[in-house]
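Extended Data, panel c. Modelled sequence:
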Amino acid sequence: MKPFRIAQIGTSRWSHGNECFRALKNNPDVFEIAGYCFPENEQEKFPKQMNIFEGYRELTLDEILNDPTIVAVAIETEEKYLTKYALSVVRHGKHIHMEKPGGLDSAEFEQVATIAKTNQTVFHTGYMYRYNPYVQELLEQIKCGELGEIISVEAQMNCYEPLECRKWLEDYPGGMMFFLGCHLIDLIYTIQGQPKAIIPLNKSTGLDGVTCKDFGMVIFEYDKGVSFAKTSAVEGGGFERRQLVVCGSKKTVELHPLERHIENRLLTTGRYIRENSTLWNTVHEQEFAEPFDRYSPMMLSFAQMVRGEKKNPYDYDYELTLHQLVIKASGG
């Protein structure tokens, strides 16, 4: 099938803009890159991010919006600008892939989702854990009842961010919970649905004089238990301790580490599967997923949706509710 034309709006220092563009470049049989646009002075703000765009045409925003041959747009600006440009794109009837979590303004996000739903255009967001092979297997096991009734979910996404990043987080209410905790909230919401109560416990460590909420924690209350998401920007070794634990009435599945870098930009995920047993000290063997790419499966899935080959399992209403949960968990 002939590749379809796609453009990218923006990139950023701390999110996935460059990796998204790399995924487009690495799949020329699927994507014909029309060009890119930097409407928020990205070239001046992020000069070290520019190399990957060399050899491609720089477009204006109007050129992207008004070119009917460009059928899809990846919106990868800094988070605070996402819905501003997403609104412009969906109003022009184009399919969108948008960086997570989708801006600070819930009303704007709702407009984006509503217009895309009315137009029946693809509204796809950058939650890459949805495409992790072990996460996908786990979601299928839950759906089939293999874990029994779900009691709780524990999700952690920690790291040790440089001072520059933690200063940047001051622009975002909720800090780390908004920035990275959104990935965890997506997983918890997918598994357990709407919580009965949301208790944000986000804190500023005050380290290095930074005032952002660089330690994120939120509690979700459900009928059978309590689930939580934790995301810290000041945790040494935090990347290796990223994990997802789902406890059911039949068995518990632990994905840990949720991601581990191996080579050539590939990752793997560790997994323990524990049948419920009173033999509480049984040693379980850890297994690892085959190496996988973090971004190409996400963008290739988007392409399938654009072509009508696949229905987005995360519909407009799901994305809207998820964004509202992220804002509440961030203290909004």
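The CA atoms of residues 19 and 296 lie 9 Å apart. This feature is highlighted in the accompanying rendering.
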